[in-house]
């Protein structure tokens, strides 16, 4: 099994490189090649247990997405995100459940609802990978990513309720809303708690390798602990990621840089594997359904019909929600004349953006893993009706949405001529960030000058040292200042680099303060911090320092 998994990973990475080279969509190429390879005679693709996919493959992908997601943007679009990730999940589960029960006589409604819950959540990996490739507007990507991070929790909670219903043979499904609230609330609190504890620990670590190792353990630990408490492991992972992402600005620059690169590697490996694995399962699932007495062609017909149910429900719900959102926005605009803060809700999406959003409901590995986790036996020990059938149907619908949406989305995006991002607003934030950085640097140098620890020539050299426009000449500036001060070049240069380090730390604190006051978005902060990290790394290398600094918070 290990050899097969490694081979799949290597081929998937090779196909991803090929797709990037020729500007293709890697997820689609991986799935198509996997589908073709699954029918090669004598090829036995690896098959993972559902618990392995949900407990090992999914958590790091969700955690990485949460780390790279702006929490302020999440809050700003919270109403839209919850509408799609909770309300639409419930509606889709019910619609697919009733439709499947009608299309397959003899299939218990409880089992049909298992299928509905498995098909309900669009996949975070699919949405982010394809949306990023197409260059969708920022606010559209915010909703897609936010929806995909949260909807798995709602769907898996409903999946658990439907599974208990099917196994027990009860006449009603129980209180699904209460089960979801417990799973979501406990999962969120647990994720925040784990994030707080891990943040306190990593601030005291000197080695970036230990910081990164701790970060890698977080998603698996959060998921496993939440599932042990019968809460949502997905929600725990996402909120742990949100918490640590918000606090990452307090880390030392070396730990932050290493952690960022490690999770980019994780993304590339797991995304490639997930899509290739999906494609490779087709033939084995067809054979499994046939071995259990099902007609594969009939199941494929049912899957095709349910595919359009899934797509139609999403489109109808999003367009209906758009009408309501526009009506509420007009009311808020009218009320804003009297109540100054009432008109601050974000502007609703355009009709073209809503259409693209509705056509972006790709399903993925979570759907496949959830369907495969369907129990084979009831509590009475009898076989669960339709077990292998719902696995094949869920798989076909997941792959169908990925191929149908993925292949047609580029043309749809071009036809809609979506409004571009508010580039001027982003530029204003960047200008504000640079103004804050400049003011912080000037204030820090003024304080150092008042302390009298450095000469005017040294402070002037340090001022040039932290200026990005003169980075190429910073070493020469340090050497010149050393000569003016009559001190040995190495010792004087080290003193100047220490001043520059103190200025960079002050700039980082100033940017964080602006973010905490909601005057700076997380994504702009992350961009500015990345540039400061690179500057600090260059200075550390020039001064011969090892990249083992503690966090900025602990060094202050």
What does this structure look like?
By secondary structure, the chain is an all-alpha fold. The protein has 2 domains: 2-421, Na+/H+ antiporter like fold, CATH 1.20.1530; 424-555, no CATH class. 77% of the residues lie in helices and 0% in strands. The chain is built from 23 helices and no strands. α2 (26-38) runs antiparallel to α17 (387-416) and α9 packs parallel to α11 (233-247). The protein is elongated, with a radius of gyration of 27 Å. The two termini are 50 Å apart. Residues 468-490 and 545-550 have low confidence and may be disordered.
Strand % is: under 5%
Mean pLDDT across all amino acids: 81
Number of domains: 2
How many β-strand stretches? 0
Q: Helix- and strand-based class?
A: mainly alpha
- Could you say which overall geometry the principal axes of the C-alpha atoms support? elongated
Q: Please work out how many helical segments DSSP would assign.
A: 23
The CATH class designation of the largest domain is: Mainly Alpha
Estimate the helix proportion, in percent: over 70%
Q: What is the distance, rounded to the nearest whole angstrom, between the alpha carbons of the first and last residues?
A: 50 Å
What's the gyration radius in Å?
A: 27 Å
Q: Sheet with the most strands?
A: none
- The unreliable regions are 468-490, 545-550
Order of helices and strands: HHHHHHHHHHHHHHHHHHHHHHH
CATH architecture of the largest domain: Up-down Bundle
Write the layout of secondary structure elements.
Layout: H1 2-21, H2 26-38, H3 50-67, H4 71-76, H5 78-103, H6 109-119, H7 124-134, H8 138-168, H9 176-202, H10 208-228, H11 233-247, H12 253-280, H13 282-291, H14 296-335, H15 351-358, H16 365-372, H17 387-416, H18 423-451, H19 456-465, H20 474-485, H21 489-516, H22 522-542, H23 552-555
């Amino acid at each position: 099994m290990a050899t097969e998994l490694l081979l799949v990973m290597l081929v998937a990475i090779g196909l991803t490189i090929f797709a990037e080279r020729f500007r293709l969509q890697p997820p689609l190429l991986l799935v198509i090649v996997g589908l073709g390879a699954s029918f090669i005679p004598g090829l036995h693709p690896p098959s993972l247990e559902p618990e392995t996919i949900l407990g090992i493959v999914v958590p790091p992908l969700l955690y990485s997405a949460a780390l790279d997601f702006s929490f302020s943007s999440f809050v700003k679009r919270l109403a839209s995100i919850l509408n799609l990730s909770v309300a639409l999940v419930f509606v889709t589960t019910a619609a697919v459940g009733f439709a499947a029960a009608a299309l397959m006589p003899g299939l218990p409604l409880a089992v049909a609802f298992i299928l509905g819950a498995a098909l309900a959540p669009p996949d975070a990996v699919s949405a982010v990978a394809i949306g990023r490739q197409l260059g969708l507007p920022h606010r559209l990507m915010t909703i897609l990513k936010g929806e995909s991070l949260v909807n798995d929790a709602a769907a898996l909670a409903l999946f658990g309720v439907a599974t208990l219903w099917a196994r027990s043979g009860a006449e009603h499904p129980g209180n699904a809303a209460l089960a979801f609230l417990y799973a979501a609330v406990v999962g969120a609190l647990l994720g925040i708690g784990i994030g707080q504890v891990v943040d306190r620990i990593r601030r005291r670590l000197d080695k970036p390798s230990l910081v990164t190792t701790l970060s890698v353990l977080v998603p698996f630990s959060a998921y496993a602990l939440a599932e042990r408490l019968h809460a949502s492991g997905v929600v725990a992972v996402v909120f742990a990621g949100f918490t640590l992402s918000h606090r990452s600005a307090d880390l030392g620059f070396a730990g932050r840089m290493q952690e960022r690169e490690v999770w980019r590697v994780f993304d590339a490996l797991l995304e490639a594997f997930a899509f290739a694995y999906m494609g490779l399962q087709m033939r084995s699932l067809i054979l499994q359904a046939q071995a259990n007495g099902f007609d594969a062609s009939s199941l494929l017909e049912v899957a095709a019909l349910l595919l359009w149910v899934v797509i139609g429900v999403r489109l109808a719900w999003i367009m209906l929600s758009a009408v309501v959102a526009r009506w509420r926005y007009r009311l808020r605009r009218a009320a804003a004349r009297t109540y100054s803060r009432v008109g601050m809700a974000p502007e609703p999406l355009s009709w073209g953006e809503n259409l693209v959003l509705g056509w972006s409901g790709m399903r993925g590995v979570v759907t496949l893993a959830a369907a495969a986790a369907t129990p084979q036996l009831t509590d009475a020990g009898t076989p669960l009706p339709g077990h292998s059938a719902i696995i094949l149907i869920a798989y076909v619908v997941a792959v169908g949405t990925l191929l149908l949406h993925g292949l047609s989305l580029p043309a749809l995006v071009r036809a809609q001529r979506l409004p571009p991002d508010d580039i001027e607003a982003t530029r204003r934030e960047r200008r504000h960030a640079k103004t804050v950085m400049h003011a912080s640097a000037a204030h820090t140098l003024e304080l150092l000058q008042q302390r009298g620890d450095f000469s005017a020539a040294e402070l002037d050299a340090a001022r040039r040292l932290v200026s990005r426009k003169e980075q190429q000449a910073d070493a020469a500036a340090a050497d010149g200042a050393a000569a003016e001060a009559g001190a040995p070049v190495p010792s004087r240069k080290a003193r100047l680099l220490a001043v520059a380090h103190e200025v960079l730390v002050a700039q980082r604190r100033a940017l964080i303060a602006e973010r905490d006051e909601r005057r700076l978005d997380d994504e702009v902060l992350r961009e500015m911090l990345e540039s400061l990290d690179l500057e600090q790394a260059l200075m550390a290398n020039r001064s011969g320092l090892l990249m083992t600094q503690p966090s900025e918070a602990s060094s202050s």
